[in-house]
Amino acid sequence: MRRLSLAVMVALATASLAGPVAAQKATTIDPALAAAVADPLREKDRARDVYRKPDQTLAFFQVGPTMKVGEYAPGGGWYSRLLGLYLGPKGKLVGLFFDPNSPAFGDKMKAGIREGVTKYPGEVAGWSNQPAERFSAFALDTVPEGEKGTFDRILVMRMMHNLLRWNLADHEIKAMRELLKPDGMIGIEQHRAKPDAPYAFTDGSKGYLREADVIKFMEVNGFTFVGKSEANANQKDPANWPEGVWTLPPSMDGAKDDATKARLTAIGESDRMTLLFRKRP
């Protein structure tokens, strides 16, 4: 796997920006970020870099090495492992977990969320060989004293569809807004439906959302649209899978023969929007 140059320049996409931003300029990737992406500790995660473009994505979200960054619903830890390497030396990474009181969750899921909060700091410390005190976590039903208004960035990676289908979006996004500093920003990466996709396909149940709907939702909930990147675009994805985005890698649900797996692998992971929003006064 090719290692990144510390001076690498990334040309962020310039097409089809909504709102006040008309174009995106080339962005220099922070040397500390390039070093984290290339770190040998990421050896098992690096295969997905070709689809997830973590260097370009985090640079577009303007994540800096000394920032306090919240990762919402960190799940399997793919981004947590990278963010731990990047933020551990000088910054702060906080795992932000679902409010477990939602009626969408059964008792097992609620217990799992609580357990995830407890385990997260130690897990990230182990993954990144960084001090555990650089990491923390909490669920959005119990925000610790002094946390509101202290976050530079919050990242919501491929999770907006779950927030919508579980009827959590309003509560969780508003809670995240309160955590941000006055000029703080939320970066959203999300599976992207076609602009004319029907509501039945874009209600969250298939994993895909319309870009315009996500932008409007965030604006209604107190954010200004800063701009978008096409770093995670994939024109090979028709974004019309009857069983949803999980048809594609890495899940490939229902792919029972080698020919189907090969066809889906050639398509790659989903077409995704990459959007940046600033907290509105």
TrEMBL record:
GO terms for biological process: methylation. InterPro entries: S-AdoMet-dep_MeTrfase_Alr7345, SAM-dependent_MTases_sf. SUPFAM superfamilies: S-adenosyl-L-methionine-dependent methyltransferases. This is Putative methyltransferase. One of its GO terms (molecular function) is methyltransferase activity. Residues 1-18 form the signal peptide. Transmembrane segments: none annotated. Gene3D superfamilies: Vaccinia Virus protein VP39. Keywords: Methyltransferase, Signal, Transferase.
